[in-house]
Each structure stands twice: as C-alpha cells, then as structure tokens.
Design a protein that fits this description.
- It is built from 27 helices and 6 strands.
- It is mostly helical and about 600 residues long.
- The strands form 3 sheets. A two-stranded antiparallel sheet has the order 1-6. Strands 2-3 form a two-stranded antiparallel ribbon. The chain has a two-stranded antiparallel sheet with strand order 4-5.
- Strand 2 and strand 3 form a beta hairpin.
- The protein is elongated and about 100 Å long.
Length: about 600
C-alpha cells in the first residue's frame, strides 16, 4: 500500500544519514559504485506491531495509532513507537481505540519506546540490502559500511595496483582482476550474511578499479600519437553510457539479489581478455623481454597491414632503448636477493620513488594536486548542486548524460590547443562558474534557482572534462617504468579529494552557505595556475625510461654521437634514439 505523509524513506534519527546516503552515491568513479542507490535503497519503514497486523489493521491505521509524527520533519518516526497495549487495541478495534487512546495506555502518560522489528513498504522496492538485513535505526552504521567498502576498495587499488602493474605487467593484473571480479560479482548476489556481502563488495570494487586502471594505461601505451587525444577522450564514453544504463536496469529488476546478478553479467565480457589482450610492448621492452615484445609488435603490424623492419633491427632498437637503464636494473636484481626487510624497504622506496627523483618531483606534486582538485570539485559540485530531479532513476540518468558533452568538448580542444592549455582553460571555466554560483548565493539568497543550476552544472561539465584530461595527461607525463605507479598514486589523491567533499559541504557550508563554493572555486583557480608548470605533451611520444628526464648530457654529444635527452628535450618532444629511417638501421640520430 502506498503510504501517505512519508517523505524520501528516512525516518527520525535516520534523517541525519540522508546526506551521507547521497554522498555514497556521488562518490563514484565507476558504474559499480552507482549501484548502491538501488541495491541499498531504503524504502519507507515503521515499527512492526504484531497484534495489529494479525487483526488486519491497515498500514495507515497502524501509523496513526502507534507511530509518533514529527511536526519538525513532517514525517513519521520509523525507529520509535508509542508504548500501548496493542493486544487490547486489536480487541477494541481501530475506531474505538482512536476515540479514546487512554484505554490502551500503560499508566497515565504515553511513553515512546524503540521498536525491535520493522515493516517496510515493499511497493517502493521489493527487496534491497537494507530490507534484507534491517540496516536502519541502530544498524544504520552497517549500511554506511556497505558504502564505505567501495571507497576502501578503490583506495587499495590506487595504492597497490599501480605498483603491481609496473612490477608484473599490465596483462597479468588485468586477468587476475577479471577473474576475481566475475566470481565476487556473482557470489555477492548469493551472500548469506551481511559480513560476507561487505567483503565481496570490497573485492568487487578493488578489482573493478584495478581493471580500469590497467586497461587505461595499456590503451594509452598502445595508442599512436595522432590518435591519443581521440582515444583518451572517447575511452570514457562507454563509461558514461554504462552510467546512464544503470538506472534502467534497476528500474526493470527490483529484487536486489537479481539486480546484483544483472550488474555482474557484463563482467563476463572481460573473459575475452584472456585471448585478445596482450601485454604492453612498452613495458616488455623496459623489462628486457624483447622476444615477447617482438611477437606482439609483429601481430600488430600484420593487423594494421604495416611493414615492420627485420627482427634483428627491431631487437637492436629495443636494446638501445633500455641500454641506459641497465645499471638501475642491476640494482633491482640485487634487492631481490636481499633479506625480507631489504625487500620491504625496496617496495616502500618504489612507492615513493616519484617524489625522490629530482626531475620528477615538481611534476608529480602538481599532478597530484590537479587530481585532488578535480575530484574534490567534481564531487563537491555534485553534492552541493540542486538536484535536477527527485526521481533517483532520472537523476542518475541525467548525471551520466552530462558526462558525454564533457568528453566530446575535450577531444577537439586537445587536438587544436594541446593538453596544458586545455587543462588551464577547463579549470578556469570551472572556477568562473563556481564563483558565479557563490555570487548568486550572496546577492540573491534563496532565489535564482535556475541560474544556480545552470552555473553549477556548467562547472561540473568543465571539471568532468578536466578530470578525464588529467588521467590522460598523467599517462603522457611519466615514463613507462613509473606510468602505472603515477596514475595509481594520483588516483589515490583523487580519492582523498572526493572523500573531503561531503565534509566541506556539511561542515563549512553549515557556517556559511557560500563557503563551499568559494573553496571549490579557489582550488580550481590554483589548479589552473599550477597546470602552467607542466610541459606540453601534444605530438610527443610517450617517455620510455627515467633517463629521458635527465639534464646531464653525454660527452659523445659533442662529437656528434648519442646523448641523453634533457628535460628541455622532453618538453619539446621525446627523441627517438633507436632507429634511423634513412639507413634502416638502429642508431642515435634524431628523427
């Protein structure tokens, strides 16, 4: 029965958790993290009064007699009930009891007590994680845990998978993630207990993010220079499509177990990676696995119907690429033979190595801040902007729809004005839009609703494009040896930013309503200024090793021989030291 006088499904003390629930929806990087709105949807609920239910009282009659009504919230209290003799009420009947409620009171006054069981309005959602395990009232913190493990899984991915990809390769990590993701996705639909469900959702989130991170780095490493701008933008379009499809599936499939099963089905598509996904030739070359890289490059050349130089020429070119990293490789082999403590320290050193390399330190810090800013502002706008619709299905669909123009606008910008100028412009546009929202709040408090929606959503489009750009830009700024590590650690900074957004909106916004907009606008402006420090990577090949960033010049350079490439060379374009197209032989001449 559709109940009257109910709001959005939150009752009494759970009203305070309403914003946290919205936060768990907004804090998402992948389609799977949008599912909590439907898998864990909270329908209307009230205390279960067994004698009245057995007496065939209607839901509205039970509410009228047993459930307190809050004038301040305009809703019934879902976690409390009046302390009446409901057995006597059932015998008297509804009309007689409502005419004189004192007949069923315990004593002279009516007391309010907590209820031990609840009834849910299944006409809204037939079953959800919340109704399955009663995740309301005193157990509401467990619901928050089901949301928090998703963010925890992504944080683990950011800290661990970047290192693992640079150590073991892109393909092995993808395949392991795919297997775990498929198994845990289907097993989550059959979770016998809440604890098992939480564990499985953590694994689903971690491996889902690991798959995306690995595939993105792989795609950027396999892409030719002239296609990198298009691929870097269009690779996000399927994600936006999945974002829009998510509410449609939830609308058609209401029971949460079947819904989880339906969301796990698309993961089966990833099985084709076992046959179609090779490892990154760039990574194989840096690891000295030349024969494996040659086989992959030969297959690529055959598919593209392009000629490839003879095997000895290609192998010699590969050796020339990694020749400068031989000494560093030897040090790594020594570490593997050391004690467990030495190995542990070596891993820690590898995790923070981007900050220890002088030529990469400033670049790393700027990139980390840009990721932090993009994520914080993106989710800050999503949480602080006025909802376009109160319908959760339409609201999430529109959220995905707004992603598409961001990526389509980004593509020509990268082609014609480059990465750095595009990033600066996007952050500036975002800052202007957010400051406009702040000005409207100051000048027209409580008014100009459409103007606030327009500028907030315009800012969201700009920062969405900036967010996708920093993904691609980071992959281009760092050498193959540290590329996955850089993207992973930068993504961790983004998680920190997204986690801070609701606190900024709640705490800072509680003091001054325009303060969050002021902070988000300022952070966007700072990011625009810092982005000017980064080099332009348009028309540049991806750097292969850390030596490409060295400022030292080889003595051979003065004699017309080979030399190490300086940081300035990288800003202008990466030098190909491996192949001379005029002679068809490996050499050290510039292309």
């Amino acid at each position: 029965t559709k109940l009257k006088h109910f709001g959005d499904g939150r009752r009494g003390e759970d009203e305070r958790s309403d914003h946290r629930d919205k936060t768990s929806i907004a804090l998402s990087g992948f389609i799977g993290r949008r599912l909590s709105q439907f898998l864990g949807a909270t329908p209307d609920y009230w205390c279960h009064i067994a004698p009245l239910v057995e007496a065939n009282w209607t839901d509205q009659q039970i509410l009228s007699l047993a459930i307190p009504y809050s004038n301040s919230t305009g809703k019934y209290e879902g976690c409390q009930m009046r302390n009446y003799n409901y057995t006597a009420a059932a015998l008297l009947g509804y009309e007689a009891t409502m005419k004189d409620p004192s007949l069923v009171q315990h004593g002279n006054t009516t007391t309010i007590i907590k209820c031990s069981a609840r009834d849910f309005n299944h006409s809204q959602y037939s079953s959800t994680v919340v109704t399955e395990w009663d995740l309301v009232c005193d157990r509401r913190v467990l619901y928050s845990t089901t949301q928090g493990v998703v963010e925890g899984g992504n944080i683990v991915t950011c800290l661990v998978f970047g290192y693992l990809m640079d150590t073991f390769g892109r393909r092995p990590i993808v395949l392991v993630c795919v297997v775990i993701k498929i198994l845990t996705g289907f097993l989550a639909a059959a979770s016998p207990t809440l604890e098992v469900y939480i564990l499985l959702k953590f694994l689903v989130a971690a491996t889902d993010a690991g798959t995306y991170l690995s595939i993105f780095v792989f795609v950027m490493e396999m892409c030719a220079i002239k296609y990198r701008a298009a691929v870097g933008c269009l690779v996000a379009i399927p994600w936006a499509i999945g974002y829009m499809i998510t509410p449609g599936i939830a609308y058609l499939v209401r029971p949460w177990r079947w819904l989880q099963f339906a969301y796990a089905l698309p993961s089966l598509y990833c099985i084709i990676y076992f046959w179609l996904l090779p490892d990154s030739p760039r990574w194989l070359i840096t690891e000295g696995r030349f024969e494996e890289a040659l086989k992959i490059m030969t297959k690529i050349a055959n598919v593209n119907r392009k000629p490839l130089p003879s095997d000895p020429v290609v192998l010699a070119a590969m050796e020339n690429i990694v020749k400068q990293g031989t000494h560093e490789k030897g040090e790594e082999l020594t570490d593997r033979e050391a004690t467990i403590m030495s190995r542990f320290l070596a891993v820690i050193k590898q995790v923070v190595i981007l900050l220890t390399i002088r030529q990469l330190r400033l670049r790393t810090l700027v990139v980390f801040f840009c990721w932090f800013a993009a994520s914080m502002v993106y989710y800050g706008i999503a949480l602080n902007a006025t909802n376009l619709s109160t319908d959760p299905y339409l609201y999430i669909f529109l959220g995905g729809l707004l992603e598409v123009p961001s990526y389509l606008i980004l593509w020509p910008a990268l082609v014609y004005i480059g990465r750095k100028k595009s990033l600066v412009a996007l952050y500036l546009i975002c800052a202007v839009c957010i400051f406009a929202v702040m000005a409207i709040i100051l000048v027209y408090p409580g008014g100009e609703h459409l103007a606030k929606v327009f500028f907030s959503q315009s800012g969201k489009v700009a920062v969405t494009a900036a967010f996708q750009l920093v993904w691609m830009y980071t992959a281009e700024l760092f050498p193959t040896k540290y590329r996955s590590l850089a993207v992973g650690e930068a993504s961790f900074c983004a998680r920190v930013g997204s986690t801070s957004s609701p606190y900024i909106n709640d705490i800072l916004g509680g003091y001054t309503v325009w303060a969050p907009a002021a902070l988000f606008g300022t952070v966007s402006l700072i990011s625009a200024v810092l982005s000017l420090i980064l080099p332009e990577t348009r028309h540049c090949t991806l750097p292969e090793s850390n030596d490409l960033f060295s400022k030292k010049k080889d003595k051979e350079a003065d004699r017309g021989g080979s030399k190490e490439t300086s940081l300035e060379d990288v800003r202008q374009g990466v030098v190909n030291l491996s192949y001379n197209p005029e002679t068809g032989q490996p050499g050290a001449e510039r292309l």
